[in-house]
Design goal:
By secondary structure, the chain is α+β, with helices and mostly antiparallel strands. It contains 6 helices and 21 strands. The radius of gyration is 28 Å and the shape is elongated. The termini are far apart.
Length: 317
Amino acid sequence: MKLRNLAMCLLLVGGLSASCIREDNSDCYNIYRLALSYHGDGTTDIFPQKIGSVDLYVFDQNSNCVSSTRLTDAEVDAQLTTLPPLEPGDYRIVCVGNAYGTKVENLDSRDLSKITFAAEDYINGETVSGNDSLYWSAIDYPIEPFSEYKMEETRTTYFASSHYDILVEVVNAPENVGKHPKIELVGVSPQTDFHNTAKGTATDYVMETVHDGIETTTAVNNIMRHKNHQDVYVRVTGEDGTEVALINFAEHIAKYKDYIDTEKHECLIPFRIEFSDPVPPPTPPDPPTPPTPGDENCVDITIGVPTWFIELVKPIF
């Protein structure tokens, strides 16, 4: 009986060896690994703090997508995955991080500049409030012909940011503006391609707002990393439909260039729109001059960035 079992084991081992010698190596143990890393704007790996899901796409040398998969939680936690079985050749691997409410389009285009990811609401033709906190990486990965002497290989793909964080505060709004003004991001690039370039027809996002019950309405979300800030605006419209603020991104960033660096991976672009108390009518001079009608209802608006943001970027010791 023992001799029979030994013979069966030898046959099994021989069969496994034969399956790896064939031209089709799909049954072989895959030795190619991909490590995941994101350093942000420093030298420390902060991947676990910033990225919670990863979608992996493999393209052959003709830009055909030969594999796409979402990594398991265990793989994301380990920051390590094994590549799918691939024939020998040169491959391009693209990863998209945090694509929770994000969809990829045009995977069969064979052109990475035409393959894009965008908010599902945008793709479905609905109003967009913002994007996921998206990240992207790409790496070339050659697969060599099978050899029983080939050692395991691990290459690291380094992620980059695909988004800007946006924060808008509306403070001490008068009654006509209300607690929930309409806050729009005008002229936003709604898509990013597989080269990590923002693009697409300029689109307006309508941000979701929260009022603190005292004096401040806040809207927080993300947008794609557009390059032309001159074409993008924050627009605030009161509950009565009156436009009360229109802020150009380029002018705002230039004004606060000491605090806002759009070249950083982790970039927050904040806006603070503060209304003053109504201006009292002027004291009549001598001889008396009647006040200009409407002066008693004037409200000044100050546009800036939150004080806490300045202290965070430029801490005072």
